[in-house]
Amino acid sequence: MFSKTTIRNLTIAFLTALILELCSPRAIFAQNIETIKFSGTAAGVSTRYIGAVEGNINFDLKDLQDLGINTYRIYGGMSRWEREDDDGKYGWPSIDEIKINPNLINWAHWDKIMTDPPGGSDYSWSGEPDTVWQGNARTIFNGLKQANIRPVVSIRNVDSSWNPSWALQLNPPRTKEDWNEWWEHVFATVYWLNVRNDYGVDDWEIHNEPDNRDQGWGGTRADYFELVKVSKDAIDFVYKTYLPSRTYRIHGPKTVGGSNWPVYALREIPNYFDTVNVHNYDADISNYTRKVRGWMKGSALANSQLWVGEWGSYEISYNDFSLALNLIKNLIRGSQPGDNYIYGSHIFCLYDWGKPGLAEGLIGDGGKRRAGYYALRMGIRALQGGKSTFFPIANSANLMTVATLDASNHVYLLAVNDQAKSYTVTADISALIKAGNGTVREFSSRTMDEVVGSLRLKAGSATFSVAGNSAILIKFDRQN
What we know:
By secondary structure, the protein is an alpha/beta fold. The protein has 13 helices and 18 strands.
């Protein structure tokens, strides 16, 4: 017989061992196991263009290349490149006169503003000299061309600060003289960038959020549609006359998230733009994306490209980790097939606007990269460029996952866990690749899109851990 003391001690020892076992990492992971099998049938292709909206505190091509973006959105317009009427004679020259002789335009003005801007900055229109990047438009457009980054340029008469003051009289254009000035500005912008120079700018947005008065448009929806029509005429004339072998794209209607203006644009001016482009700052961008896709069906632009010209956040810091993880989830959503699919997107914004930032970007003062920068970079690695996409046969309730296949037959597996608990994942990608080595990257509060290990596929299956509130990206190289 054991004494009471012995029995008590044995009981305590047993319970202690049981508690330790239940609390061990092995036990925790055993309770949080995910088994995912990927389809071998491509669902579609990933988002082809993932980029960013500019910010005014910097432009450094090394940042764009490190991030991996392949498109960059620029706010052009009169406040930036025609602060005063370029010839000083309002309403002159006329549209017909310019079509006959483009040298009636004061090209000396355009050469100077693009090469030697006020205060030494192409962003001087948006801030004080000591708060904005020092450099000219030539540097920006030449850098984008050399890096093969697709520029998308917005053309505006008046900006969000309701500048320039001289252009308020054509906001919106009403008279023949107003339209002459607007047509000339659009023509001059396109001509200077592509004919007088060769920067390869072929994507044009007509204004920015015309349904949001805070962004500077002073007219109605009908007025905006007329602006698009006249802009189309100016852009089309440049290409047909001087660049007949080049294809251009006009993005519209460039409206705020949730707007119903796209319905009317698709109905009333479908022949004056060819690329549907809207803004969407929703936490889950797919809801409004599906709505816009629904409007596109049955219209003349049913099969056109759909871009999200602004997304992310202009209110929450990109150091917010939940926001950063959600960026990856929205990139996955935009690469889903059917009504969720997004052809191209620009996150707002790459750099801060102003010092201190009036709007905070992925990169702050002094080149400091925020968490969102690294999250976006991880998503770009897996999803950008029209890779073939593959999704689980049965979706996980706990993880968002996707696999992609690039032109070099590399397979990428991306998994996002936005919950506090960790998971051990067994992923069957045998339908895509059966043997090979995988390089594992992690995005978490402790590791920002860095390589954390490697693994080897076994009969097309890989087992790995996904920590709480993190994302894992595995790139598989095939065995020779």
